[in-house]
Amino acid sequence: MTHLIPPAILPYILPVVYGAVIVAILPLLAGYIVLLERKIMADMQVRLGPMRVGPHGLLQPLADALKLLLKEDIVPRHADRFMFFVAPILSVTMALIAYAAMPFGPAFQVADLNVGLLFIFAVGSLGIYGIVLGGWASNSHYSLIGALRSAAQLVSYETAAALGIVSALLLAGSLSMKEIVRAQFDQGVWFIFVVPVGFFIYLVGSIAETNRAPFDLPEAESELVAGYMTEYSGFRWALYFLSEYANMVIAAGIATTLFLGGWLRPFPGNHQHLFGTPVELLDALPALLFVAVGLYCFSLTPRQPVQIQKIVMAAVGGACLVLAAVMAVVLFPPFDVARDGVHGAFWFLAKVTAYLYTFLWIRFTFPRYRFDQLMRLGWRFLIPLGLINVIVVGVSIVVQQNWEWKHPVVSAVVTTAIMFGVALWLTEEGVKPEPAAQPADGE
Amino acid sequence: MTDTRTNGGSQVETTVLGADEIILNMGPQHPSTHGVLRVKLKLDGERVVDSECIIGYLHRGVEKIAEHRSYQQFAPYVDRMDYCAAVSNGLGYCEAVEKLLGAEAPPRARVVRTILTELQRIASHLIWLGTHALDIGALTPVFYAFREREEILKIFEKYCGARLTTHAFRIGGLQYETYDGFEEEVKRFCDDFAAKVDEYETLLTENRIWVGRTKGVGILNTEDAIALGVTGPVLRASGMKWDLRKATPYAAYDQYDFEIPTRPTGDTYDRYLVRMEEMRQSRRICLQAVANIPTGPIMAKVGKVLKPPPGEVYHAIEAPKGELGYYIVSDGTTQPYRVRVRPPSFINLQAFNKMARGALVADVVAIIGTIDIVLGEVDR
Predict the structure, then answer these.
(1) Does residue A237 lie in a domain region?
(2) B99 CB near a chain A CB, below 8 Å?
(3) Which residues pair with B92 in a beta bridge?
(4) Does residue A80 lie in a domain region?
(5) Could you state, in order of their start, the residue ranges of all structural domains in chain B?
(6) Which of B32, B133, B358 sits opposite A438 (nearest CB)?
(7) Does some domain include residue A158?
(8) Is beta strand B173-174 parallel, antiparallel or unpaired with respect to B311-319?
(9) Closest chain B residue by Cα to residue A221
(10) Do A367 and B138 touch (CB under 8 A)?
């Protein structure tokens, strides 16, 4: 097989396949993240959420996608037609390009760039052009204000998020996404436990960067209707929507790679065997999990009211069992060459999901910030905190290396304690409202 | 905000804008103007330089309709004004006509009226809480609030068959006896409700973002509030202890023990706290009333054809949103000569411009929410 392909093309085949897979799967994934969001929201709000389209709403994303495709495509009369057309495409393209450097496991990565993280950040920042241009091209005040808010917000919070990331980069010593994960494997600890403050800064920054509540000011529904998306409808709107969810997954992917150990399973160095079998306990977990979910689906199948829903539910259960089989098979030879790739992807996606869950949890709990409060939080709390965090972490690394202080845990505890003190000081000092923020009423 | 200038004989409206200013039309189709309110904002960046409320999109001429209906026929119309507090509207109208007739509802009817009106106050405040929190971006409280409101609506439904526009009372008393288990259901609701209010408060009261979004926003001091004729929770949050239930007791309020919550500064946070406390006080009134409902008739002898003697009457009650007054002129026929409603939402909305000037766009929705308007009542 291999000799049929010219050697000049050979290294490009797998990346192209990976790229095609990402582009094909991501819209579906975004749809199911929406379903997950609606289900979690419903759970927190004493409701059921989507229940009609498919069992427990499992086919809702497909129905929504179909609906959006068939909707009338409206362009406002005074809009800049070309920009109006280009803006959502720009937004979604940039979001998808960023996936090129994202490692979904030790094997599944389009390109392992040595500046991977910078690349993702740079491309992600370009996506803002889609929002600003779309808001401007719509020729509507709501859109314009939304776009302006978005631009200001992204500039501020990208700085903060980047400062949060730098603390982890200092520990990893590389910008390559794969190297960062390997560094965590070598040091035997996920960086979230060494620089929790950096993780917190990145968490807040990433929520703001992806325009999610409580920082969803560019599309604040109760204020700006839909912000920069107000005039968009149908499939163009869907593209914006897709780019938003793609960006969420990217933000979660960065956090997973940098702070949560990437594709590593918990305790990657630990080899505890399960009941005398050669299988390690945590390696068996994915398979057991899928078996449990599959059986749960089968148990729900007879309770579905309609025949088609029974079929779909059984199919979902079957798919889970197939996945469980895949997870189990790769543990044993001769298939164990694929073990790291398959299990790595599982753990990576599991961590991404957990991070996304935090996003949603925060969204349904907190009210929305006001624009000036958002800026104050960014510039007067997160950015100073991030700067001091970088300094403190840097000093602790130097101390460790020069004095051969072999207790990273102690240094982590000390730096974190210092950072908590700084954070407390900043909440007292930095978040004080400016005097005369509200102009005196002239009457 | 707008200059009216003469241009070749015809009047044209022009708006004078500064170089950095834009006009933003919020509404009448907007997620958070609570109906069909249109707010014209003159913005400098995000700051509101000037604002103007444009109303009338829901005008149905309710007051004019009254002149062509008999007194009983008009009673269901008042439910459609403040449709979030139909029971309170009905109470005000029925008592006004009773005053005109010189009749008085029997004690049992008055106590049942009090219970239902206080439940309606809780329901109305729950809608306010949910939508106000939703405007400020908290997505969850609205569902909790509507969960409890549903229980109240079930009580209404069991009592008179309707949930929203109830037409619960009749001129002279009540048409229906309370259903079996009415007392127990109201009591059970009140018992559960205390913990529910605490639950809403855990979501919002000490939340930093909530405090940041509401404290110091839309301040209305006592003098301005009185000068503008603002009533209800908005007035009480501005430090004025004024409640018609205490000042001029009606229905059976003189029999019950309750507090009038007030707050000093008159910002959005204070109005929030006042309404939360009012829900607790309403619960107290309900519990006291339901423990001791007198027996006896539920309808006074007012006759089938109502012909009040010529004259006029003004009767006001403390509706959930403020002073709801009915001014009725009778010419001795079966139809009123003139009915004029003093709707709390309409008067309170006049304070909007005062509160919004100098605020940010995000504050505008908070201010609209905190005034607690219902456009059916503003436009009538």
Answers:
(1) yes
(2) no
(3) none
(4) yes
(5) 2-54, 103-305+345-379
(6) B358
(7) yes
(8) unpaired
(9) B31
(10) yes
Cβ within 8 Å of A, B 204-263: 204, 207, 209-210, 212-213, 216
Strand order in the sheet with B38-44: B21-26, B38-44, B47-54
Q: Tell me which amino acid residue B272 is.
A: Y
d(CA A248, CA A210): 6
Q: Which residues on adjacent β-strands are paired with residue B5?
A: B12
Q: Which residues of A touch B364 (CB under 8 A)?
A: 223
CA torsion sign, A55 to A60 to A63 to A65? negative
In chain B, the residue whose alpha carbon lies closest to the alpha carbon of A369 is B209
Residue A242: helix, strand or coil by DSSP? Answer: helix
Which residue(s) pair with B22 in the sheet?
B43
pLDDT digits (tens, 9 = 90+) for B138-192: 888 889 999 899 999 999 999 988 888 888 888 888 888 888 888 888 989 998 8
CB of B112 less than 8 A from some CB of A:
no
Beta-carbon separation of B207 and A220 below 8 A: no
Phi, psi of A345, rounded to the nearest 5 degrees: -60, -40
Q: Is residue A157 part of a domain?
A: yes
Q: How many domains does chain A have?
A: 1
Nearest residue of A to residue B24, measured between CA atoms: A141
pLDDT string in tens for chain A (443-residue length): 556 777 777 777 777 888 888 888 888 888 888 888 888 888 888 888 888 887 888 888 888 888 888 888 888 888 888 888 888 888 888 888 888 888 887 777 777 777 888 888 888 888 888 888 888 888 888 888 888 888 888 888 888 888 888 888 888 888 888 888 888 887 777 888 888 888 888 998 888 888 877 888 777 666 777 777 888 888 888 888 888 888 888 889 889 888 888 787 777 666 665 565 666 777 778 888 888 888 888 888 888 788 888 888 888 888 888 888 888 777 777 777 777 777 888 888 888 999 989 988 888 888 888 888 888 888 888 888 888 888 888 888 877 777 766 666 667 777 777 777 777 777 776 555 554 444 444 33
The per-residue pLDDT of chain B, averaged, comes to 86
Which residue from A minimizes the CA distance to B216? A438
> Which pTM was predicted?
0.82
Nearest-Cα distance to chain B for A364, in Å, is 6
Chain-chain contact of B358 with A213 (C-beta, under 8 angstroms): no
> If we measure between CA atoms, which residue out of A362, A367, A47 comes closest to residue B133?
A367
| Nearest-CA distance A368 → chain B (Å) | 5
Q: Which structural domain, as residue segments, surrounds residue A163?
A: 71-269+363-429
Q: Is A222 in Cβ contact with B22 (below 8 Å)?
A: no
SS3 B261: coil
* CATH 1.10.645.10 holds for B103-305+345-379: yes
Contacts of A367 in chain B (CB under 8 A): 133, 136-138, 204, 207, 209-210, 213
Q: Do A46 and B144 touch (CB under 8 A)?
A: yes
Phi, psi of B317 (to 5 degrees): -125, 165
CB pairs under 8 A between A and B: 93
Q: Cβ atoms within 10 A of the Cβ of A356, count?
A: 21
Helix axes of A196-209 and A383-402: crossing angle, nearest 10 degrees? 150
Respond yes or no on whether ipTM tops 0.85. Answer: no
Residue type, A128: I
Element spanning B346, H or E? helix B344-349
